[in-house]
Specification:
The complex is a heterodimer. Chain A is mainly α. Helices cover 64% and strands 1% of the residues of chain A. Chain A has a two-stranded antiparallel ribbon. In chain A, strand 1 and strand 2 form a beta hairpin. Chain A is elongated and about 75 Å long. Chain B is elongated, with a radius of gyration of 35 Å. Chain B has 20 helices and 48 strands. In chain B, helix 10 crosses helix 14. The longest helix of chain B has 37 residues. In chain B, the strands form 13 sheets. Chain B has a four-stranded antiparallel β-sheet with strand order 1-32-31-30, with no helix packed on it. In chain B, strands 2-3-4-5 form a four-stranded antiparallel β-sheet, with no helix packed on it. In chain B, strands 6-7-8-9 form a four-stranded antiparallel β-sheet, with no helix packed on it. The chains are: A mainly alpha, B alpha+beta. At the A-B interface, helix 4, helix 5, helix 9, helix 10 and helix 11 of A face helix 1, strand 17, strand 20, strand 21 and helix 4 of B.
Chain lengths: 351, 985
């Protein structure tokens, strides 16, 4: 029933969304903000933030250098024999991807702003919506917002996320201009992703609202929005943060899996075992927004599709390894930041 | 047939086809064509009727399969205008159409020396004309698009785009597609001129839109080539190394792009990746290409700005020959035209028309033009047409082209008996034979395609050269070679054979036969090579069915023809208001459940009397009610978005179970006047069909069966795989999470956390590919088969005791459909060993991926449990850690494991689907991915692997699976953990 979970997450909650182990101890009466301020921020958070900062710098560089040309996969100026694609070298640090000779390194650089934007908006909006709605739902308990959050979450978790997003997106896609398809995809994703944040936040908020300091604040006449801002949200941060790396993983799965299958379908000379998609009358098309622009998941998909082979000797490993590494490092950085903040919160909240 | 087995038949078909061509080469013009004619030469000319649009046809290949003039003999020369005619004239049987630079369109009567039949001004300068049916489409540089009637030039419709229309209009799928200088592509209904769709490409369109099949190929000014589908959706976009200023030529799998830096690029039309490229650097000069390349089956020809003509091998891009060019200050931007016998080019710099041998580049003839700069050449019906700078159009043809000669002959069998009613087509003229098998026509000099056709005979195609009276033609038609095809007509639902059913076989070349089924529904019918459709008309309580059969020079069978209930493919649903009542009932149920839940929460006593049920039973009842409501609500969401799909809207049968409701509602939704009652009715029908098991029929490759049949075949495969991979996952995850979670921050914990995080972030298909990489070849070495598919491959079977008679259609095994069980029943241990190995490897791949997800959830449960008060207390008493872990905590975390499984079940399903798809296993997950990936493909109807409502059925299954598992998990957790029971409000 519960969509939460993840690294260092809250205990798995019971059937009706409450923590099974009863309220945690709340000896520390300081607000979270205070606690975080007083603590030295953990090393892993700094490492994670530094990595994300590096990614942002790359994104800014790409924006400045490529500007309006950012939306196209670069084509190398010289023609490269597709049968013997060159691996990493001085002139192509990450090797060459055989889509008309795309330099992998520059393609990844160009992709950075796109991916930061996609992940940023999905995680940002998911967190914010999940946080606010989940917090409200937990605080007011059994009110309208609670009903909305719980019923929508109950629906969403009944279908694998990638099916839900695809069905919703495909439904609206024909009505959209190409320029609006990516935003629509992001919105569709957010619509299916926010309950995964809201559910754990709600569960935690329901515990927190019974804590002594919240009861005290309420008795002192604190308004609901004040309660929400000062006490509930800060104390419900941890389980929502635990969901972030999971979501990033899901997002890249979605961004890469369908272009990959579509690429297999389009590939004329495919591998022995995968030839069903190539020789059949399938003509698979990715249901995602068309991604002629560079995007890590797309690059990974194209790389795995063109570079992978069942034989080691004919593997062009760089085509899928580098986009894969870029995604994993990025995900690790996010996970470090989230886990670090969670730990800092946990150390002082006694959970 | 499994997925895995689609490959070999296609390969065999291809090989047979090639064999046919090799064994029966065309030895001479008369007899060779007859022998090879069965399938080979039909396609070569049928695509080309007339030089009707920019560069000949809408694939812009510049190729005319009919030869052009072998000497520069004037047929006619007409000067309808005083202004330059630069584009190639286009033609139909009656007229040659052309437009001058002032924007006047002329129709020249080709049977009357090019006299002007009509003219029509379209305003400012006109684009290249496009003749389609009885319409001439032309755009103007001011952005108006005209539909002119070819008979008299009257305006059928006119639309204004507001942006200049780029050279060359394409007619695709009933729409007229034009590119604009503003970077958009606009499609208008060919008959009404209504806007069908438009899409922005971001960059000015650089040349005529090329089309082949449903694909549109558009070059843009910044050097990209975009492929769109016929609905205007971008499929791929590839950038070539330099700006492009002309249309691309599409031919078969290739897209040829010439660029302004002199490069020529061959892209795969399927995905836009590079096939080969030829850079101008290779000849040491930049010689821009501003003319669309011409393509014949062997070579691609380029005219460069310098006037140099070059020919490249299509397959690998090697330069076969080139002519010297020289810069004259006048760029040579006129696209050449090619025929089997000549490459026709206009060289502006030297004002020459040349005819070169396509294979060698040697000149056949050349002629210096009568007037200045020539327009592009076109080859139609043996005539070479081109415009001149002074508003003239010249038609060159063979000598004596103007005299019609009598052409007559007889059509007969090999034994000399005449064939009446055979149809004869020579060039554009056609007739049919009389009772004595003779025919006659009048034809001018020229080279014509001759086609003789009679029902039951192999069509005859050959080239006829008329250079004088031709009165003694003898055309011998051979009867079609027939092969016995066996089959069975069965009831699709029960699988039992149906006797006395008439099967109608409509084959190629007008072949038609009928046969009635005998006992057990079996039949045998003789069919010619090629695709024959076996169809059964509706009878009794059955609807009809039709099954395509491909005969490839050998007997075939058995072919399964499954028939279903009358009326539709959707099963029988009760009429209104029963369907409408169902969503209402579901809503009421949801309300009841919500109410019950609220009252339970508040410990209120409304609803169920408090003493009636135990709290546990009460919980179960409430959850069951909720479950139904959840299923209905989810299906409502899927239905809503499913009916929005454009395929459903335009083709009426695709993704909604009741095609008469969803699509019409879609259209009405767009008019903001949706009939909600009808919509709800459609949804109710869907629900009833789903719950009653009326799941319709679906196509999968060549199979056409009830959805239930596919499920019967392949669901056991998925269950088998899922069960084994879950068992592996659980067996590994339980101890792993216990150890890792117990010692937080230990090396094991950190390693497993890092591994699981990496596993989460690397998409599962890549992990699976890496596993395949590690094990694929070793597996082949050990078991003699690659680890693809669930069952052994055909080669394995053939080398290990032959095909098994208990493995049937769809690779389903009997009697249980579970391959492992059936293998054991038949004591086939070699089979058993290989299948077990395959399933274990596939299950292992699923487990690795799934464990990374599962562990993330599981270990936090353990680490939390390790700090519980009773554990702390025991630890303080000196109880060993091992005892604490395995005796105290191990049981304690079980309920949470069960719930964790329920939470991660969607991830598990997704993982299994991906692994099934990659391992090429027939399984429901793979089909779901195919279905989703295929939803937007091939817009004109569902021509992909699966048609019908399979995807809704699968989503229905998924929803049920996940929700029921969640419910079971909650119940088990409550059963295992008394605290949850008592603690629950």
């Amino acid at each position: 029933m519960n969509g939460s979970g993840g690294l260092g997450s809250a205990p798995i909650s019971g059937a009706d969304g409450e923590t099974a182990d009863g309220p945690a101890s709340w000896e520390d009466e300081l607000s979270v903000r205070e606690r975080v301020r007083r603590r030295d921020v953990a090393l892993e958070v700094w490492v994670g933030l530094a990595t994300l900062g590096a990614y942002s710098l790359v994104a800014l560089y790409a924006l400045a250098r490529f500007g309006s040309d950012l939306g196209r996969l670069d084509v190398h100026s010289e023609w490269i024999d597709p049968t013997v694609p060159p691996g990493p070298s001085g002139s192509h640090p990450f090797g060459v991807l055989t889509v008309a000779g795309v330099d992998e390194f520059w393609a990844i650089v160009r992709a950075t702003p796109w991916d930061l934007a996609i992940v940023g908006s999905v995680v940002g909006a998911g967190l914010t919506i999940g946080f606010v709605l989940g917090g409200f739902a937990g605080l007011e308990n059994e009110g309208f917002v609670d009903l909305l959050v719980t019923s929508w979450s109950d629906l969403i978790v009944g279908v694998p996320p990638f099916v839900m997003v695809t069905v919703v997106y495909l439904g609206v896609q024909p009505f959209l201009a190409p320029a609006h398809q990516l935003p629509a995809f992001v919105i569709a994703y957010i619509a299916t992703a926010w309950p995964y944040y809201a559910r754990p936040v709600r569960a935690r908020a329901r515990v927190v609202r019974e804590a002594s300091f919240v009861l005290a604040a309420r008795a002192a006449g604190a308004s609901r929005s004040l309660l929400l801002r000062r006490h509930i949200l800060g104390n419900s941060l941890a389980p929502a943060l635990a969901q972030v790396p999971v979501d990033v993983g899901n997002l890249f799965f979605l961004l890469a899996a369908f272009p990959f299958l579509a690429c297999l379908g389009a590939q004329a000379n495919s591998y022995a075992g995968l030839s069903v998609y190539a020789t059949g009358p399938y003509g698979l098309v990715t249901p995602l927004p068309n991604l002629p622009f560079p995007e890590w998941g797309y690059l990974l998909a194209r790389g795995a599709c063109s570079g992978w082979s069942v034989e080691w000797s004919t593997n062009s490993w760089w085509m899928y390894a580098f986009p894969g590494i870029v995604i994993v490092v990025f995900g690790f950085a996010i996970a470090l930041v989230c886990d670090g903040i969670q730990k800092m919160l946990a150390r002082h909240s006694g959970i | 047939m499994t997925l895995a087995r689609f490959g070999p038949p296609v390969a065999v078909a291809g090989a047979l086809f090639v064999l046919l061509l090799v064994v029966f080469p065309s030895s001479g013009p008369a007899t060779g064509a007859a022998a090879a004619g069965e399938t080979a030469s039909i396609r070569s000319t049928s695509g080309f009727v007339h030089w009707s649009t920019f560069h000949g046809a809408e694939n812009r290949s510049g190729y005319s399969p009919l030869p052009g003039p072998s000497a520069p003999n004037g047929v006619w020369f007409a000067c309808p205008s005083g202004f330059p005619v630069r584009d190639a004239p286009v033609a139909d049987a009656t007229f040659v159409y052309t437009a001058d630079e002032l924007g006047t369109v002329f129709a020249l009567n080709r049977s009357n020396n090019g006299s002007t039949a009509w003219n029509r001004s379209v305003g400012s300068s006109a684009t290249q004309l496009d003749v389609s049916g009885s319409n001439v489409y032309v755009g103007s540089s001011t952005g108006d698009l005209f539909d002119l009637k070819s008979s008299n030039g009257s305006v059928g419709w006119k639309v204004s785009l507001g942006s200049p229309i780029v050279q060359g209009v394409a007619v695709v799928g009933g729409n007229v597609v034009v590119g604009t200088g503003g970077g958009s592509l606009e499609a208008f209904d060919a008959s009404t001129g209504a806007l069908a769709w438009n899409t922005s490409l971001g960059n000015a369109v650089a040349g005529a839109v090329a089309s082949e099949g449903s694909g549109l190929f558009v070059p843009t000014a910044n050097g990209t080539v975009d492929r769109l589908d016929s609905m205007g959706r971008l499929l791929w976009s590839t950038r070539v190394g330099a700006p492009v200023d002309t249309a691309v030529a599409v031919s078969g799998p290739d897209v040829f792009v010439g660029d302004l830096h002199g490069g020529l690029t061959d892209l795969w039309s399927s995905n836009g990746s590079l096939r080969w490229a030829w850079s101008s650097a290779e000849i040491g000069t930049t010689d821009a290409i501003e003319a669309t390349p011409a393509v014949d089956p062997a070579r691609v020809y380029v005219a460069a700005d310098s006037g140099s003509l070059r020919a490249y091998d299509r397959a690998n891009g090697s330069l076969e020959w080139q002519t010297p060019g020289e810069y004259t200050g006048l760029p040579n931007d006129v696209p050449p035209a090619v025929t089997p016998t000549g490459l026709y080019a206009v060289l502006n710099g030297v004002q020459e028309v040349v005819d070169l041998e396509p294979s060698t580049g040697r000149a056949i003839w050349n002629e210096t033009g009568p007037v200045f700069v020539f327009g592009a050449p076109g080859v139609d019906n043996g005539e070479l047409l081109f415009g001149t700078d002074f508003g003239c159009v010249e038609a060159l043809g063979p000598p004596g082209a103007n005299t019609p000669w009598p052409v007559s002959g007889v059509v007969e069998r090999a034994d000399g008996s005449p064939i009446p009613n055979a149809s004869i087509t020579i060039g554009t003229r056609s007739t049919s034979t009389d009772a004595r098998g003779s025919f006659s026509l009048g034809l001018r000099n020229g080279t014509y395609a001759l086609e003789a056709f009679a029902s039951g005979f192999t069509p005859l195609e050959e080239t006829l050269v008329v250079a004088g009276p031709t009165t003694n033609l003898t055309l011998v038609l051979r009867p079609l070679t027939l092969y016995p095809v066996t089959g069975q007509v069965v009831d699709g639902w029960s699988g039992s054979g149906l006797e006395g059913v008439v099967v109608d076989a409509v084959g190629p070349f007008g072949y038609d036969a009928e046969v009635t089924t005998g006992t057990a529904g079996t039949f045998t019918v003789d069919l010619p090579n090629g695709t024959t459709t076996l169809s059964v008309a509706a009878f009794g309580s059955y609807g009809g069915a039709s099954v395509p059969v491909d005969v490839l020079g050998a007997p075939l069978g058995p072919v399964r023809v499954a028939v279903g209930p009358t009326g539709s493919e959707l099963g029988n649903s009760p009429g209104w208001p029963y369907p409408l009542a169902l969503p209402v009932a579901a809503l009421a149920l949801a309300g009841a459940a919500a109410g019950l839940r609220e009252h339970d929460r508040r410990r209120g006593l409304v609803g169920l009397p408090p003493g009636l049920l135990s709290p546990f039973a009460r919980f179960v009842v409430m959850r069951l009610l909720l479950l139904v409501a959840q299923v209905v609500a989810l299906l409502a969401v899927v239905y809503l978005f499913g009916t929005l799909l454009p395929i459903a809207a335009t083709h009426g049968s695709a993704s909604v179970i009741d095609p008469s409701v969803g699509p019409s509602c879609y259209f009405r939704l767009s008019d903001l006047g949706c009939d909600l009652t009808a919509y709800a009715h459609g949804f109710g029908t869907l629900l009833i069909d789903l719950f009653e098991g009326n799941w319709g029929w679906a196509k999968f490759g060549a199979l056409h069966e009830p959805v239930t049949t596919y499920l019967q075949w392949w669901l056991p495969d998925s269950i088998q795989l899922g069960a084994i991979s879950l068992a592996i996952s659980m067996a590994v995850a339980y101890p792993l999470a216990m150890i890792a979670g117990w010692r937080r921050k230990g090396a094991f914990d950190v390693a497993s956390r890092l591994a699981s995080l990496a596993g989460l972030l690397v998409p599962s298909f890549l992990l699976t590919l890496l596993i395949l990489l590690a094990f694929g070849t070793r597996f082949l070495g050990a078991f003699g088969d690659l680890p693809f598919g669930t069952l052994p491959s055909d080669p394995w079977f053939l080398t290990h005791g032959g095909l098994r008679d208990w493995v049937g259609t769809g690779d389903s095994t009997s009697p249980t459909h579970f391959p492992l069980v059936d293998g054991a029943i038949h004591r086939d241990w070699a089979f058993e060993q290989l299948v077990a190995a395959k399933v274990l490897l596939q299950a292992g791949a699923i487990s690795v991926v799934y464990l990374t997800i599962f562990l993330r959830h599981a270990w936090s449960v353990v680490s939390h449990a390790s700090h519980e008060p009773h554990v702390q207390a025991a630890r303080a008493r000196g109880v060993p850690e091992g005892t604490l872990l395995w005796r105290h905590t191990a049981r304690r975390v079980l309920p949470y494991y069960v719930q964790t499984f329920a939470i991660t079940l969607p991830a598990f399903v997704g993982t299994q689907a991906v692994v099934e798809a990659l391992f090429n296993a027939q399984g429901i997950g793979a089909i779901m991915l195919l279905e989703i990936t295929n939803l937007t493909a091939n817009p004109p109807g569902f021509t992909g692997p699966i048609t019908g409502n399979f995807y809704q059925v699968i989503i229905f299954f998924l929803v049920l699976l996940i929700l029921v598992s969640t419910l079971l998990a909650d119940i088990i957790a409550r059963y295992l953990d008394p605290r949850l029971r008592s603690g629950a409000r």
